[in-house]
Design brief:
Length: 505
C-alpha cells in the first residue's frame, strides 16, 4: 500500500502517503475497498506536508538542525519514517462496482488502502474511447497502455485546443489528422498559416504519413510537385465575407449591400473595374464618391492578390469540398499570404462549406452520406468574434460542420461561444485567466485541476467531452513516432494477409 485514507467527504478525499513513495500531482490512484467490493479512482490534485505531534515540534526541530548545521555537527532524526509524511488531496473520480462505473456518490471505507492503478483497472475506460486516437492514458507523468481517442461523432460539436506556446498544439493536430486519415471517415480542413503541417519543419509532416497519397490533398499559393494551386474566384466572395475582415462604416456597409443587390455575384468585380463616377451615376447621389473610393481601394487590395481570380470558373473551392466529402484531410498552406488573404481564404471556404451542407440538409439521403467536416483554425481568437466562424460555432452541429479552434488565449473568446465547444484538449496553460474561462465551459468538472493544468509538460493534456467519465489525462503521441507505428502496423497487416512485404527485402 502506498497510502491510507484519513478522511473528508465525497468531493475530496485525503490520504496519508507512505514515507517511501513519491506521488505526483495528476496521478490517478486506486482505493481498493474490499469491504464494499468496489474500487475507487482518486486523482491527486494537491500534496501537503504532514507530521505527527504538535506543529511547534517541526519549527523547533528545523531550528535545532540549523543550529547544528552552523556548527557542522552531525545529527539524525529518530523514527522519521514514522513521524513525517505527506498528505495527498484527491478528487474522487468515481468507483467501479460489479463491473460498472459510477459517479462518486459514496465514500470508500475508513483507512482504506491506496495503491497505484494497473492497466486492468483502467480497462473500463476503453468503452468511452473513440476512433480518433490521440495518445495514451496518463497518470501523472506516467504513460499507461490504454489508448485514448475521441469519438468522431463529436466533430460537429466543435473542438477546442488550448495551450501556451510550444506546449504541443500543432503536434496534437497532426496526430489528430493522422488518425482521421487512418479511418477515412471524416473530412478535415486544416488552414496552416505557419506552413508547418505539410513537411513538418524539421520533423515529420503530413506528407510523410503512410496514407498521404490516398488521404491527403494539399493546396498552396505556391504549388509544387504534389501540391495544388490555391485559387479563389472573386465571384465567390460575399459582402459579409469582406465585413469579417475589414471594418466598415454604416454608409460603407450600405453601399456594399447596394452593390450586391445591383450586381449580385459580380459585385466585387464591378466595383473593381468601374470608375468612381460611373458608380455614382449608377447609384444616383445616394452613395457618395468618397464612400466608393474607400471601397474601391479595398476591392483593389483583394483583386490584386495572386489567389483571387476574375474568372468565375477558376476556383478550387469545389474540389476542396469534394475531397472533404470523400473523407480526406485537406491542407491549405497559407504561410506565404498576407493575413487578410489567409482570413479571406478561410472565411470563403467556411461559408461555402456551411451553405453547401445546409442545402444538402434538405435531402436526407444525400445529407446522411456526407461525413462530418471539421474546419481547423490556428489562432482562432482572431476569427471567433463575429462572422462565419461564430455562426458555425452556433449552428454548425445541425449541418455536420464542426470547428476546431486552436488558441493560446481562450480568454479572448466569448464565453457564450466557448460553451458551444463540446470537446476540449487542454494542454499546459500558464495564464490563470485562460484556465478560469475553460473551467466555466468544460463539459467535465476541472475546477480542482488547477495545479495539474499548471504543471502539465509538453505533450501532456486533459481531454473533456460529453459522456467521458471524467477529464481524461492523456500523453499525446509525438507525431513522428505515431506515423512510424502506423507504418509498422501496415507492414504487419500486409505480411499477415500474405501479400509481399516490400519492407522485408
Ligand atoms: N506529444 C508530444 N510529445 C513529445 N514532444 C512533443 C509533443 N508535442 C510537442 N512536442 C515537442 O514540442 C515542440 C513544440 O510543439 P508544437 O509545435 O506542437 O507546439 P505549439 O503549441 O503548436 O506551439 P506554437 O504555439 O508555437 O504554435 C515540438 O517540436 C516537439 O518537439
Ligand atoms: Mg503551433
Amino acid at each position: 500500500m502506498i497510502g491510507r485514507i484519513i478522511g473528508r467527504n465525497v468531493g475530496e478525499i485525503v490520504f496519508r502517503q507512505s514515507y517511501k513513495e513519491d506521488i505526483k500531482i495528476g496521478e490517478i490512484l486506486v482505493a481498493d475497498d474490499k469491504e464494499k467490493n468496489s474500487i475507487f479512482f482518486l486523482r491527486v490534485v494537491d500534496i501537503q506536508y504532514g507530521q505527527e505531534g504538535a506543529e511547534k515540534w517541526g519549527i523547533k526541530t528545523a531550528g535545532d538542525m540549523l543550529f547544528l548545521d552552523e556548527k557542522e555537527e552531525k545529527y539524525g532524526l529518530r523514527e522519521k519514517e514514522r513521524r513525517l509524511f505527506k498528505i495527498c488531496i484527491c478528487k474522487p473520480l468515481g468507483y467501479i462496482k460489479n463491473g460498472r462505473f459510477h459517479k462518486p456518490k459514496t465514500l470508500p471505507s475508513h483507512f482504506c488502502g491506496i495503491r497505484r492503478a494497473d492497466e486492468n483497472d483502467y480497462r473500463f475506460l476503453e468503452k468511452y474511447m473513440g476512433d480518433i486516437e490521440i495518445g495514451f492514458l496518463r497518470s501523472g507523468e506516467k504513460e499507461i497502455d490504454v489508448r485514448v481517442g475521441i469519438p468522431g461523432d463529436f466533430i460537429p460539436y466543435h473542438i477546442g485546443v488550448f495551450a501556451t506556446t510550444g506546449m504541443g498544439k500543432s503536434n496534437l493536430m497532426r496526430v489528430f489528422a493522422s488518425s482521421t486519415m487512418k479511418t477515412g471517415r471524416y473530412g478535415i480542413l486544416i488552414i496552416d498559416p505557419h506552413g508547418e503541417y505539410y513537411d513538418g519543419n524539421g520533423g515529420k509532416g503530413l506528407k510523410h504519413h503512410p496514407l498521404a497519397d490516398e488521404q491527403l490533398v494539399v493546396y498552396s499559393p505556391n504549388p509544387s510537385f504534389g501540391i495544388n494551386r490555391l485559387k479563389i474566384s472573386a465571384y465567390e466572395i460575399g459582402v459579409a465575407d469582406i465585413g469579417d475582415i475589414f471594418s466598415f462604416s454604416e454608409a460603407q456597409k450600405e453601399a456594399l449591400y447596394a452593390l450586391h443587390s445591383k450586381f449580385g455575384r459580380r459585385w466585387l468585380v464591378e466595383l473593381y473595374q468601374r470608375e468612381i463616377n460611373e458608380l455614382t451615376e449608377i447609384f444616383g447621389k445616394r452613395i457618395q464618391d468618397i464612400t466608393f473610393s474607400v471601397l474601391k481601394r479595398r476591392a483593389e487590395r483583394i483583386m490584386n492578390s495572386d489567389i483571387i481570380h476574375k474568372d468565375d470558373e477558376v476556383s478550387t473551392t469545389e474540389s476542396i469540398i469534394n475531397n472533404l466529402y470523400s473523407g480526406k484531410v485537406v491542407l491549405i498552406d497559407t504561410s506565404g499570404l498576407y493575413e487578410y488573404e489567409e482570413l479571406l481564404t478561410s472565411i470563403v471556404l467556411a461559408r461555402t462549406i456551411l451553405n453547401k451542407n445546409k442545402k444538402l440538409f434538405r435531402d436526407k439521403d444525400k445529407f446522411f452520406s456526407i461525413p462530418p467536416i471539421l474546419i481547423t483554425v490556428e489562432e482562432a481568437q482572431r476569427v471567433l468574434k463575429n462572422g462565419i466562424f461564430a455562426q458555425i460555432a452556433r449552428e454548425g452541429r445541425k449541418f455536420k460542420v464542426g470547428l476546431c479552434a486552436i488558441t493560446q488565449q481562450p480568454k479572448l473568446i466569448k464565453e457564450e461561444l466557448l460553451s458551444q465547444f463540446n470537446t476540449f484538449f487542454i494542454l499546459g496553460l500558464a495564464d490563470e485567466g485562460d484556465r478560469n474561462i475553460l473551467k466555466a465551459s468544460a463539459k467535465q468538472d476541472i475546477s480542482k485541476l488547477e495545479k495539474e493544468i499548471q504543471t502539465l509538460e509538453v505533450g501532456e493534456g486533459l481531454i473533456t467531452y460529453p459522456g467521458a467519465p471524467f477529464a481524461i489525462p492523456v500523453k499525446i503521441h509525438l507525431y513522428d513516432d505515431y506515423i512510424r507505428s502506423i507504418e509498422n502496423e501496415r507492414v504487419v497487416k500486409k505480411t499477415l494477409s500474405g501479400e509481399v512485404d516490400d519492407n522485408f527485402y
